Amino acid sequence: MGILKNILFSMFLFIMTTSYAQKPTEVPKPSEKPIDLTNPADIIIYIVLPICAVLLFFIWKGKQKKKKQ
């Protein structure tokens, strides 16, 4: 039982040190400001493109169903 505890502790310690070592320091952090809906680029990126992606997905799935029938 003591060997198992030592192995588990060693694995935990190894995982924690490698996960901390992987933390990027020079990567920009997300901004805390909300989306500015007066900016046309924000409207296109956050509203129009996701709606287009969802519509294209449903169109593609509809074509896949028709091919199976």
Overview of the structural elements:
With 69 residues, the chain is mostly helical. The chain has two helices and no strands. The protein has helices spanning 2-21, 40-68. The protein is flat, with a radius of gyration of 24 Å. The protein starts with a helix and ends with a helix.
- Estimated radius of gyration: 24 Å
Inertia-based shape = flat
Low-confidence segments: none
Query: Major sheet, described briefly?
Result: none
Beta content = under 5%
Number of strands: 0
Overview in brief:
The chain is an all-alpha fold. Helices cover 71% and strands 0% of the residues.
Structural descriptors:
single chain; 69 residues; mainly alpha; 2 helices; 71% helix; flat
What is the strand and helix layout of this fold?
Layout: H1 2-21, H2 40-68
